[in-house]
Every structure is written in structure tokens, then in C-alpha cells.
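Budget justification note: compute hours in this period were largely spent on complex prediction jobs such as the one shown. Inputs:
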Amino acid sequence: MSAYAIETDGLTKVFRTRFSGRELRAVDNISLRVPVGSTYGLLGPNGAGKTTFVKMLLSCTHPTAGRAMVFGHDTRGAEARRPIGYLPENHRFPTYMTGWDMLDFYGALSGMDTAVRRKRIPELLNLVGLDERAHNLRLGKYSKGMLQRVGLAQALIHSPKLLVLDEPSDGVDPVGRKHIRDVLHSLEQQGVTIFLNSHLLAEVELFCREVAIIQKGKLALSGSVEDLTQGSGYRVEGLHVPEKIETELRARARSFAANNGSLQLLYGTREEANQAVDLLRAAGCEIESLGRSRSTLEEVFMKTVEGEPQAQGAKA
Amino acid sequence: MKTTFAIIVDTFREAFARRIFWGFFACCTLLMLFLMFIMRVDVVQGAIATVTIFGRNAPSTDVQRLVHQAQGVIAMIMYFAGMALSCFASAGLVSAVFEQGRVELLLSKPVSRTHLLLGRYAGNVLVVATNIVYLVFGSWIIFGLKTGVWGAGFPLSSLCTIFIFGVLLALIVLIGVLWDSAAIAIMASFAIMIVTPILAQKSTLERLLSSEWSRDVVRVLYYALPKTSDVSIIIWNLILHQPVASWMPVWSTAIFGAVVLALGLWRFERRSF
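Corresponding output:
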């Protein structure tokens, strides 16, 4: 068995307009490895090619070049898609079905027996937080949040080993998001690989261990969230800093922020940070915190997408 | 097998939800009630000998002919009007599968595209076939019970009607796969129903046309396209227990249906969603 849940090799999709024949490279030569059991986030601005990439993984869209493998099998084969659970973005679930009917239908398409489906459906509907009234309610009457929940249940119906989720918490309230995140965490602990495509960077940062950023169809950045958000500087925070010392500290800092008697300073080197600590201690100031600076995933994302560093704080 | 069954059940469920099935069912039931009413009037106004004959359970030749003609009329109504309604209703049922957000989910399942589309096609044929069989067999039983005239021609005619619907549905599927358009699919199936009776007058057209190439066009179109008009004559002959001159219209129409369905499946396999 492959060590990778998802493996793409030079995956490319070129769309051609029907009449002019103009080419659009939606996905350009992306090679990506998603280890089994990982939680992986796919990020990128609108139109970057994320959804096309996901659709090629599922063989909904045929690649112009390259190939996509799931657990070592080419996804063009129907059987290769058996271990995948998928929740699409902008889904249109059949509104004539009830929540139960929908899970029953997609369970049958996944090759599950009737008896197994009957046992699994109520468990899943309860797991995603849909009460018994919702079981027999037509999907046309569901709210957006309920549809996301039943969509997640649909993706889980056949106990997949790989979960591909496209904007799973879209339209879900904060409590619902937390609930979905808890469900996903429990699946992660069971060894399910989770591949998340989301615009909500904070959500990805909270949940995913690894991320890839796609920009204009190309893989711009990939790595662990821990490594990517590791900042390059040192943060020093002191309390009640006298004005005379503050001026000196600010002059050497890369950036600073003052708030309610607290002064936060960011230095580029360890030596500069140590000198700042010495100055603060000599003046009898208290050190509130000290450590390596960290970037948020949003900052990493913006740097990658816009190609320019984001200021931590305004320097006077 | 359970996958195919699930797709067929889903098609029925959607047909129920869109009121397509129940619409047909209501039309068929009304037609049968109308038939019962007409027959009662016939009995009241008809010759006493007819009733007497019913009592003896030995239908006369005249009654038999009358019944067969009435069955022929019902079969023709079902064939032309029912077919047009069926195509109209089915176009939406086919194109619904290709809706964005729905097709991706279907394609992500471990089912081949051919299997998915054929399952939907079979489900759609069965939705219409159920109503055709309901109307034809219902009418056949009413005729049989009232007149004692039982013949295999009328029930057999339903197979021809279902067959032609299957061919037109193949065209609807192909157009659905190509353009996602229920409207174009309806127009194409209606065009076939309008053009092919004209082409059925091949000999007359050949006499009227002056150039050889235009005659060739008529011949090619006649043999290539489904022969809805010729098949209706076969149905009529079957019901009236008259010999069928040629089965060519049936098998050539079957070839058209098979080719068009194969093209639809091929395109669906290759298409990116």
C-alpha cells in the first residue's frame, strides 16, 4: 500500500474556449504528496485552480497531462474512488430526498448493503448533529448549515479512508463549525486522511498539520503549518517602559506596538533581542513575554499570494 | 446490481417529485375512465344482439373489429401524444443529472460513468414504460371484460411504443450530455417526430424532387433516422392482427438508438465537469 493518500504527478488542466481556442491553464504541473493519516489544507485565492485540482483527484475533470493517484491507484478507475468521501462546494443535493434517503442513495452507490446502511444512517445523522425531525425532512426544507451537515454525513457514509472536503463549514454558524471540527478531529484520530479546501485560513490553521498554497494554477508553497508560520525574528514584550528607553528600543526594532502600558518589539536577531532585554532589566522593567516570533497562516498566505511581506506593526 | 437498482429508484423518486409520474398516471387513468364511459354508451345504444353476444361470451366479428379499432386509436394516442409528453418530461429528468454540484458527487462514487448514465436511462424508460403498460393493459382488461375480445396485438403494441420512446430518449441523453440543455433535447426529439412521417413518404418525395442528390439526401435521412411513422403502422397492423410487411423500420430504428446512446455514453466518459 502507498504511503500517500494522495499523489499527483505533473497534474495539469488546460481549458480551451470553444470558438477562439484560447487556452487557460487552470492547473499547471502540480505534483503533491499527501501522507496517509495527515490533515492537509489546500489554499489559494479565488480562481487559483483549487476546485479544478480537487475535481481531477476525483476524476470529475480529466487532466490534460499528469495523473492523480489515491492510495496508489489511478482515480480514473471507479474502484480507486471507493475509499474517498467527498463533500463538494456549491453542492446541489436532490431536494426531493429526505436526509435519510440521501444517505441511503449515496451509500448504495458506494456499494453498501441495505442492512449496513440502515444501521449506519441514524448513527451518522446524530454524529453530525441532525435531530430525528431532520431525518425525514426533505432536503429542500433544510437550512444551509443543515445541508452542510448532511453533506458531511454523506461523505462519511461508507467509512472512507480519505475525506475530501470543499468548504465544509460554508454557511455553518460558529457552534456548528466547532462541531464539524470535533467530528473531523475524531476522524483524524481514527487515521482518516483529511484533505481540506477552504477559504477560512483560521480554520485551516486550527485543523490542518500541512498546507499547500496554489497561485494561478501553480503550487506556490507547501509544508507543515508549524514550519510555515515559524517567524524569522524575536518578539520581546515589556511592561511600563520609560519613554527614554522606549525610544532607544524602538530605534533598533524591526517593528513595534504599544498598548496599555505594554510595549511589544520585534527584532531581527537574537543579539538585538538580548540587548533589548538587558536594557529593559537595567531600567527595572518587567518582561511580560519573550520568544521567537510567529506568523499567522493568513500572513503566510498573503505573502505568498501577493509576493510581498506584511508589516507586523507600523514603524514610526 | 444494487447500484443500478439505486439509480433506477432515484429516477422514479425524482419523477414522483416532479409530478411527471403522477401526471402521466392521472392522464392514463382519465383515458381509461373515458373509455369505460364510451363503452357503456355504446352498449346502451348498440344493438341488442351485441349484449346478447356478450352474454354468450362469443364476440361477433363486428364487435371484434370495433374493439381492435378502438384499441388502435388508444395505441396511436399513446404513441404520438404520449410520446411527445414523455419526451417533454424526460428531457428535464436527464439534464438534471448534469447539474453542477450534483454530477461531481455522483462521479466521485465508485461507479463507472457508463453505469451511472445507463442506470438513469433505464430508470427513465421504466418510468414511462410503467405508465404505458398501465394504460394499455388497463384498457385491454376493460375491453376484454366488457366485450370478451382478448388479443395479444394490443398488449404487444406497448412494447413498440416503449421501444420508440427508448430511441428518442437516447437522443435526449446525447443532447443532454453535449449541451446540458433540456430545451434543445425537446426540440430535437420533436423535430424527429415531425420530420420522420414526412420522410416516410419517401416514394412521393422521390417523385417530386428533381435532382438525384436531393433524392439521395431523402433516402439517407429516411434510413438513418428513426421511423416513427412506419413503426406506428406496424403497431396498427399488430392490433388489427394484420400481417407486418417489413420489420426494417424497427431494426433500423434500433440501430439509430444504439448508435446515439453509444455516442452519448462515449461523450459522457470523456467529458470534464
